[in-house]
Each structure stands twice: as C-alpha cells, then as structure tokens.
Write a structure and sequence with these properties.
The chain is α/β, with parallel strands linked by helices. It is built from ten helices and nine strands. It has a six-stranded mixed β-sheet, sandwiched between helices. The structure holds pyridoxal-5'-phosphate. Pyridoxal-5'-phosphate (PLP) binds next to loops.
C-alpha cells in the first residue's frame, strides 16, 4: 500500500489540477504527508479530538475547497482509534473531496461493533484501501487491493498500468490464497489481543495506563511526565524493547509512545522480567 499512498496525490493532481491540497490525520502514518510532499501538493494535517478521531470541524473552508483528497486510517496507526467513517464520507461528498480510507488494520478490530469500512456508506467519492501486510503478515509480498468509486478505481488502474506497477502473477496467486482464508487472520487477531493485554498489564505496573486500542497492532501509551523520548530510552535500556516516540507521527503525538505488539508472548514475558524483576 505504501506505493499507492506515496504516489496517489501526484496522480489525483493530474485528474484535478485545480486542487492542490492533501488532508491527513495530524497523528498518523507518515507517508500520507510524504506522498503530498513528493507530489508538490500542500500537506495539511487535520486535528484529532481527545479520542484521536479526525475532527473535520477544525478544517478551514479555504483548505477544504482546495482539497484533492482526505486520508483516513481506521483503525488507526498509531492511536488505534476507529473513526466515524459515515461522517467522513458525508463531509467529503458535500465538498467534492475524495476520501481514501486506509483500512489495512480492519481485520484486527477489537471494538465490540466489529470491523467497519467506508464502503458501508456507499462508494461514491470514496475508496477503501487494503493490504495483506497486516491482515496476513505478508508485508514482503507487496500486495493488497482497493475498491470503491468506479471512476476513480478505473482511473488509477489505467495510470498504474502505464507506470508499470503490475502485480506479478505468482504474487497475485498467493494473494488470492491469503484472501480466501479467514482462519489464519482470526488466529493472528487473537494473538495480537493477548499480547496487547500483556503489554498493558506490564505498563500498568509501571504506573502507565494505556487503553486497549479499538483495533490495530499498537498500544498508544502516555509517557510518564509527558517525556516520550525519556520513556523510550528507559524501555530500551532497562527492558530491551524498542518503541516509537509519538512525535514520529506528528507533533500532536508528542508525549505518547507507540508500542507494537509484534513479538511473541515469551519475548514480552522477558521484557516483564527485565522491567519488573519478576
Ligand atoms: C496505516 C498504514 N498504512 C499503510 C501501511 C503500508 O502497508 P504496506 O506494507 O501494504 O505498504 C502501513 C504500514 O505500516 C500502515 O501502518
């Protein structure tokens, strides 16, 4: 998906030269902003509310009028929030802005309401983007799919063809096998949940209250005293665990750290013993 995220603004700009702005969540995966920069577009972060959800009420009308695309990411990296995708679609349709909804973590949703896609709110003006990287731990395969507004999907398929971005036949065959099977995804979802619970318990004993994310692979934890870099160093030096300071994901993420639940339980138990001595 990274390839699409990085090139999309440039291609959409060819389609709509009158618009030059990419809106993206103020705390998010950095490639949304970088794709805008690479395309020579204006990258405008959209503020998030206290639950880390996009706050579209904060977007200036002058930015909305110039917006080519709005990126959403639900469940989100790094915050784990689930956004109100119906509200995002309605806001964007009212302004002629395309929504690209990055749903690469959707199968790893823990919120009781279950997984959500923007396509539940119609396909006009919206495209849902999926990746096998997170769904099936197949990041090296470089495969995924997008679905939604027919005109936009057709346009992107044409452009990708001329840009030489074909997916090799054997990769397509492997992707079909992975997408046809949901059992391995359920097993992996349960693993992530168990690891997230275990990491939360360790942090709790350190006096850090990290909420269970609504989805995704990450704990988004407030650093003691708001010192994310100090906490990152402590966890590395004392626990041997590498986490990401929140400002990697935007200035509004400062004060938090992102902890990825991507190690098996026995490694997380080792971190517990190092940090807590038991
Ligand atoms: C929110 C988000 N979108 C997209 C990607 C990229 O995924 P892919 O491996 O499919 O390029 C990532 C990977 O970290 C991600 O966190």
């Amino acid at each position: 998906m990274k390839e699409l995220v990085a090139t999309l603004p440039q291609w959409l700009r060819l389609r709509r030269p009158d618009r030059d702005t990419v809106l993206y969540p103020a705390v998010s995966y950095p490639t949304y902003e970088m794709g805008a920069v690479l395309a020579g577009c204006r990258a405008v972060p959209v503020a998030v509310d206290s639950g880390w959800r996009l706050d579209l009420g904060s977007v200036a009308e002058s930015d909305a009028e110039r917006a080519l695309v709005l990126w959403a990411n639900s469940p989100g990296n790094p915050c784990g929030q689930v956004d109100d995708l119906g509200a995002l679609a309605a806001w964007a349709r009212g302004r002629g802005v395309l929504v690209f909804s990055d749903e690469c973590y959707v199968e790893h949703t823990y919120a009781p309401a279950g997984p959500r896609t923007i396509l539940q709110h119609g396909s006009h003006g919206v495209v849902a983007v999926h990746s096998l990287s997170k769904r099936s731990n197949l990041a090296g395969l470089r495969a995924g799919f997008y679905a939604g507004d027919g005109d936009v999907v057709r346009y992107l398929s044409e452009v990708r063809k001329h840009a030489g971005l074909f997916v090799a036949g054997p990769v397509q065959a492997a992707a079909v096998v992975a997408l046809d099977d949901d059992d391995h995804v359920s097993v992996q979802r349960a693993r992530y949940l168990e690891r997230l619970d275990c990491l939360r318990a360790i942090l709790g004993e350190l006096g850090v209250e990290a909420p269970l994310p609504e989805g995704g692979l990450y704990l988004w934890a407030p650093a003691p005293g708001g010192d994310a870099w100090g906490f990152t160093e402590q966890l590395a030096v004392e626990g041997g665990v590498l986490v990401s300071p929140g400002d990697f994901y935007g200035a509004a993420g400062a004060g938090h750290v992102r902890i990825a639940a991507v190690q098996p339980l026995e490694r997380i138990e080792l971190v517990r013993r190092r940090l807590l001595g038991r």
